[in-house]
Design brief:
The structure is a homodimer. Chain A is an alpha+beta fold. The first copy, chain A, has helices at about 10-20, 70-75, 110-120, 120-125; strands at about 30-35, 45-50, 60-65, 80-85, 90-100, 160-175, 180-185, 190-195.
């Protein structure tokens, strides 16, 4: 999907950009919760950091480690659901969509390189730690300090980017009166309607 | 499951109680994200308010409306996943478990009555609004004011309580060094181990 100038953005994207601006003083306004479905069919949920939109689409970008459970889960089942609550403006965006994992093997190198370069050294260092979720390793004492390897210009192979492509967005405003808007992507266009909160 | 005094609580429950205390100055510390799986197998995710633990178990209680989509989803598939991030103490609890929906038809009336009584009039009023998620109803103008019916002492039939019974808890502390603990319920006991963050 190619996006046009701001006047042609779907309503939910304009609303979400506005929420990001209105809540930018809150350091946690760029955190959202990403749910996926594990191999046994039960859901998983975790907090992730929003790393911006892909330059030429409405895809929401987050970073991951290919040793993390969510990486395996998403390769098995790409369906995801985001819950993103903005506490200052008291509004919630719920996104249902599909995730594509950009690894060192596929054609999304430019995202990986760009997002890697933007990371702090402390964030980069985590990709050189022992495998996340594995039994505590003696080597994990290194997690308290920055690893030399974190200063590499190129991302390590285990650094991945997850691009969430939205199919529907449910925007609830906890104003008085409350308002709620549902948007849907039919494969060609976005449509939106207001629904009961 | 019957729980004992605080000295016999599993580690995750003590840690979660401590997080609630340490973050209580943050009005949003009692909000978490609840993921479920819809009938088509894809995940859904939304922000809900923690209403406390059930008196005699580790079940986490939230309220719902039986006209809401999550109610239908949970009756179809009870598997849920909670992501609960505490921004002041910088720690996350991820709970995987099963949800039981307490309606007016089953034997959990005491929870329903207790939680209903604790709600504000504004929160009660929402249960008398038009069906959530349905196309905007002209009647929904009443959402801006409190409905007379909200002052009833007994909960309306559409007021439900969701009790999430945890099976595993993943506790990540974003301290320096980061620490991460996984707890698991085997049907009789909780076990816990520290894992790589």
């Amino acid at each position: 999907m190619t996006i046009g100038d701001s006047s042609t953005l779907p309503a939910w994207r304009r609303d979400l950009e506005r929420a990001l601006k209105r809540n930018r003083g809150d350091a946690h306004s760029r955190y959202f919760q990403l749910a996926s479905v594990s191999a046994d069919g039960s859901p998983r949920n975790r907090t992730v950091v929003f790393r911006g939109f892909a330059p030429d689409s409405h895809d929401l970008l987050v970073i991951s480690d290919d040793r993390a459970a969510k990486h395996t889960e998403l390769l098995h089942n790409s369906a995801v659901a985001i819950a993103w609550y903005f506490s200052r403006s008291r509004e919630q965006f719920r996104v249902v969509g599909n995730a594509v994992v950009a690894t060192c093997d596929n054609d999304t190198q430019r995202w990986r390189q760009r997002l890697w370069s933007a990371l702090s050294d402390a964030a980069k260092a985590q990709f050189f730690w022992p495998a996340p979720g594995a039994p505590l390793s003696s080597a994990s004492q290194s997690t308290s300090s920055h690893d030399q390897g974190s200063h590499t210009a190129a991302p390590p192979d285990n650094f991945t980017v997850i691009a969430v492509s939205p199919v529907s967005v449910d925007h609830l405003q906890l104003t008085n009166p409350q308002r709620r808007f549902k948007s849907h992507w039919d494969g060609e266009h976005w449509s939106a309607c207001e629904v009961n909160p």
